From TrEMBL:
Pfam families given in the database record: CRAL_TRIO, CRAL_TRIO_N
Protein known as: CRAL-TRIO domain-containing protein
Chain segments annotated as coiled-coil in the UniProt record: none
Domain of life of the source: Eukaryota
Amino acid sequence: MISYDHTMIERDSLSDQSPFDAFKAKCSENGLLSKPEELREEDLCDGINDDVVLLRFLRARKCDVEEAYKMFSAVCITRTRDRHCTFYDNVDVKAYNETRKMYPHWAGRRDKFGQPVCYLDIEAITSKSLATHRQTSASLKVLEMNIPKSISIGSLRPYAIFDNAVRFVLPLCSAVPNRPNPHKPITKAVYVVDISSITLKQVWDMRNWIKNTSGLLADAYPEIVDKILIIGAPSYMPTIWDWVKGWIDPVTASKIRYLKPTEVLTTLTTLIEMADIPKKYGGELTWECGMLPDLDPAIKELLNGMEYPVGPVKWIEGERAERIVVAVGSVDGKKRVERLATTASSHQPEPLLVDKAEDATVGDEKHELTVEIGMEGAKESPVLA
C-alpha cells in the first residue's frame, strides 16, 4: 500500500482534518481499504484502493468528502459483486487482446511529463467488430470465476482494459526514476484518437459504445484522462459533435481537443518526443494502433529488457519487497501465471493533492492549441494542461 504525505494538503474546517484525511478515514472505517478477498496475498493494491486511487476520486468530486465516498463505495461494491479482479486474472488472453484494440491502448511510450500515451483508431470500432465482440463474449470460457449469472461477460471486458491501465501501466510509469517530478506519481494518460475514417453511420452504430466508455471513465476510473487529442476530424464534425456531446460526460468532453491536419505534428511534439510519436503522425516510432506496447528505453531498462506480452499484466510483491511483473489471464482454457520481470523495490512516489507540476509547461514554455472546428463548446483556445 502506498503511504501518503499530508504536507501538501489544504486544511478544511472538518475537525481540522484535510479532505484527504477525512476521506481516507471514512473509507477505512467502512472497510473499503482492506485488500479485496479476490486478490492473492502477494498481489499489490495499486489502482484498486491505494492512496493514488483515493486522490483521484476526491479530485473528481472537488474535495467533497461525502460525495467522493459515495462514488468510491459504489465502485467498490460493483468491483466486489462482479468479481473484477478474478475476471482480470482469468480472462481469455485472445479475447482480452481483441477488446484492447477497441479502446485507447498504450503504445509503450510516454509524453514529456512521463505520462503514458494511448492511441485509438476509430476504424477498429464498426458494427461488425461490435457484433463480433458480443458473439465472442457469449462464447467465452470463464473457468470457475463465480461471476453472477446476471452479469454480462461483455460488460466486464472493458473493465479489464482500464484495470490494466490503473493497476499496471500508471504504476510502471511512476516507477521510472529519470522523469520530470519523480517525487510524484503518474495518475493520468494522454489519449490520441484518430477519427479520419469516421462516417455518420459509424457514429450512430457506436453510440452505445461512446456512452458506455464515457460513463466508465467518469464513474469507475475518474481523473485518469489528462487530455484527448482528436486527429482527422472530417468537415461534417459539427454534426457529429451535435450528437456526441449529449452522449459523453461533461468533464470528459472538456478534455477533448480537435487538431487540424497542420496542427497534428506541432501539437504532438510539444508533448511527446519525436522518437515516441508513431510514423503515421509524422514521428519516428514504428508502431501502429492494435500492436502491443513498444516499451521505451527507460522502461525496458527498468524491466530488464522485458517484451510486453499479449494479455493482462499485474504487479505482485516479492519476499524482499521487490515489485514483480506477472502475466495473467487464461490461454486455451488454462490459467496463466508467468513472472516476466523484477524491479528493485515496491516503493512508489507519494501522491500530492496540490499538484503544481500539472501546469502545461515543457521546459520554460507554455503551449497553447487553437481550436476552430466550429462546434458549440469547442471553439476556444484551451491551454494544453
